[in-house]
Amino acid sequence: MRAGPPEPPMYNLALLSNSAVGSPVDMDGKHFIQTQAGAVGHALYGPYEALGPGHYAVEFCLRPAEKYALEQDAVCARVDVAVRSGNLGLVHQDIQLSRLQHGEIFVPLIFYNKTVQPFEFRVHVSGQIPLLIETRCRVITLTDASADYVSLLAATRFPDPNSPSTPEVFRTILSSFQNFYEHGAIIKVVQGSIIVNWGVSFHANRIDDVLLVGDMFLEHVYNFVANGEWCAIDIGMNVGLTSLFLAAKPFVREVHAFEPFKDTLARARANLSLNPNIAGKICVYDVGLGDKDEDKTVLIPADMPSGSFAVDGLPSGEPHQISVRDAATVLRPIIQAAKARGHDVIVKVDCEGSEFPIFATLDAHGLIEDIAAFMVEWHKIDWAKTQHEMIASLVGGGFVVFDLAPKGGNGFFYAVRCRR
What we know:
Elements: E1 10-14, E2 16-17, E3 22-27, E4 30-35, E5 41-45, E6 47-51, E7 54-64, E8 75-83, E9 88-96, E10 105-113, E11 117-125, E12 131-134, E13 136-142, H1 149-154, H2 168-172, H3 174-182, E14 186-190, E15 193-197, E16 201-203, H4 213-218, E17 230-235, H5 241-247, E18 252-258, H6 262-273, H7 276-279, E19 282-285, E20 288-290, E21 294-300, E22 318-326, H8 327-340, E23 344-349, H9 355-364, E24 373-378, H10 387-396, E25 399-403, E26 411-417
Parallel strand pairs: 17-18, 17-23, 18-19, 20-22, 23-24
Antiparallel strand pairs: 1-13, 2-5, 3-4, 4-12, 5-11, 6-11, 7-10, 7-12, 7-13, 8-9, 8-11, 14-15, 15-16, 21-22, 24-26, 25-26
């Protein structure tokens, strides 16, 4: 299954609500303000965030809070876009009661902005009937005024959790999907499959599909920024989110990703297929890395998330055939080729305890000095070892290390080579 053309840039903006006009209500995985009959004024306004020059479209969502009899048509709300502290309106639309007779409506507006300035997206109510108004509005960037903004906006809507076509997993972890949506993700149900677009696209049909999403797209744990051209090495590819996240950066020219577990690798390849515009940057290796070469069978419990798989396995579970290769032997030609192309090398490591033997063999073979930066999530598998062993080899090799580990266990550290 391939994704369609790239989604337009989207801003999912939280508007300010007026408590004198209505009260907050949660429904169908979204946040609304429910206005009161007879209350007049701006139910929603703000968020006073700046947009640059260009063409934009915004969509508002309104529905009647209760059934009503239409005895006489009248304006029940006005939606608008304004600048200069609300004193200059760019575009507006009046909403008649008759438009809401059949329930929820979506109201799109298109506008052009000439300069960088803060915007307001407002909903003014007349008090004719109680309304439910979504407190977030979606703003998308258009290539030009002729773009089909109605269809583009419709494609950004949050899926209906009550629809028969929506998979059960969506309802099971609805709050997670809601959180993604509120932070700018576009979520679609395509032929029974949940696909999330957050700069890159990926499947989210299992609970463990979303376990890495918070770290990646909310906490930005691998969001490095640099000049020049880079080669990224992803040790512990999992379902491919980090590889895609890194490949989406224009200064990252190549990604080399390592994942030894076949089922997890198949899910990663499915995610890569959703991103044909950048998947060509990613070279996938179906092996794990360590400090020696070995082919072995390990046991993994069936109910473990794929991100928790370690190449040493566990005492019980289902058998998995995997291959592990010495990291120094495998990475040396990759690093040498990248350097020959003028690419700096950054290494991301997250491999459930294998980071210790990987660092040991890289250090022993003198490869650490050829790497510009590391992003590491380490795991306390052996209680006699800590991140300080890895950090010592980096500091000794001329790196500055930022250790974010909490007391008593797993954590992140980052290392950057000093320029002298």
